[in-house]
Design brief:
single chain; 180 residues; alpha+beta; Rossmann fold; 6 strands; globular; binds adenosine-5'-triphosphate; binds magnesium ion; Chromosome partition protein Smc
Amino acid sequence: MPLTELIIDGFKSFAEKTKIQFDTGITGIVGPNGSGKSNITEAIRWVMGESSAKSLRGSNMKDVIFAGSEFRKPANHAEVSLIFDNKKRELNFKDDKVVVTRRILRSGDNEYLINKRNVRQKDVRALFLDSGISQDSLAIISQGRVDQILNSRPEERRSLFEEAAGVLHFKKQKEEAAVQ
Ligand code: ATP
Ligand code: MG
């Protein structure tokens, strides 16, 4: 499913609003150490509903907000949007274009939007589940993740295969129904 654009504003080292456009095929992001390459994949995982500050290399979710530098004052919020071309309805959503946004304020207030309408984290996760690109999926492989997958327990590995096969969505629904 085509991810066409990523907009990062006030997230980690991206003090200024930055747009990254993706063409078809493979996109390579290159740059010196510490230039923000990993911050880009973290921004993508964050919009998709990442809830662990630790896995984003912070201790609190507010740590993702640009902390300021010698010449720039800290940002008061972080906002990231992912823009998808959904003409083929690869995402379970009615529109041709899908914009998923997450925003966090210094107060800790956090919100998610799909095409500018407020939604719950659960709705964002459901949108991506079974699309093969959820924030925890094999579509995004961070530094060290390959080793982690190879060393993981069989049950953890099984859930990655279930997600790739598109059955995890039903399993999650079944678990939720059992709890209620
Ligand atoms: P490497 O090649 O070493 O993997 P990289 O290009 O992946 O490097 P990142 O890890 O994405 O680099 O970026 C690290 C930079 O982001 C550091 O300079 C760090 O200070 C900066 N950074 C992280 N969080 C924030 C924040 N909240 N505010 C400002 N800068 C931040
Ligand atoms: Mg890196």
